Every structure is written in C-alpha cells, then in structure tokens.
Amino acid sequence: MRGGATVSEYAWTDDIDGVDFHELSRLYAIAPLGDKPPAALATVFGNSMFTCFVRSGGALVGAGRALADGLDCAYIADVAVHPDHQGRGLGSAVIRRLVERARGHKKIILYAAPGTEAFYRGLGFLRMNTAMAIWRDPDRAVESGLLRRDDDR
C-alpha cells in the first residue's frame, strides 16, 4: 500500500448534488478510464440509484455508481480512483460501499477489465458462465478482451 491517507481519512458522500462533472470527467481521464464527457457523466450518474464520491483536501479522488432496479439486479460501473490515491484501498472501499447499498438485490453484477478478475474475486464476485453483451463497438471490445466471439475460443 502506498503512503498517504487511509480510507477513513477521506471525505465520503453518496450525494450527487454539488458534483462538478467537469472534475469527474478529468478524474476518469487521469485514472485512466477513457474520455467521459461531463454531460454524459451527469446523465449516467443522475440515472444511477447509488453513487459514491471520495474527496481528499476538497479534490475529487474517487467515484463509482450502481444502476439498480430496487429488487432484482444492480450493476456496478465507472469505479475510478486518482492514480495518486491508488494502492490505499479506495477502489475496494468504493465497491464495498456500492455493494452494501445494493444489498438485498438478487444479483449484483459488474464487468471486469481483463486481468482484474482476482481483484474482484477478493471482493466476493464470482465469474459468470453465461453473461452475454451487445457493445456499441464490438470489434474494439473484442480487441480489448472484454468480449469474445463464439469462434474466438
């Protein structure tokens, strides 16, 4: 674990009010989790049942969200931690917080980037055998290892 603040020394909120979506967009860019425009983030976080934001010294250093229907299914997405704050358990803590808030749903799902399966297994997630997906850019998702065509065994 890197030096610096412990998980309990950060400021945590589940409230989307007051979130600067430009700052959130910069967090995703530096994490690096890609280009997520502020307006798009406002939409997806605004439509998520559960959200989580982590601050250090007033700066946004972690975030995540879960789409949920209130009973059957919750989907954890967009968990990001600023590189200067990685290695301190923040990502795990964001996921645990979202899982706890989604507790009571029949299933809690996320998709893992290739190579991160062991991390999520350590948080209680198990591999799904029958998950299927339709991606806007399936070729890119196959290339990155997120999707597999039946003939790509």
UniProtKB/TrEMBL annotation:
Q: Name one Pfam family in it.
A: Acetyltransf_1
Domain of life of the organism in this record? Bacteria
Keywords, A to Z, come to: Acyltransferase, Transferase
* N-acetyltransferase domain sequence ranges: 14-149
Of the GO CC terms on this record, one is:
cytoplasm
Q: Which GO terms describe its molecular function?
A: N-acetyltransferase activity
PROSITE patterns tied to this protein: GNAT
Name of the molecule in the record? GNAT family N-acetyltransferase
User: Which organism encodes this protein?
Assistant: Streptomyces mexicanus
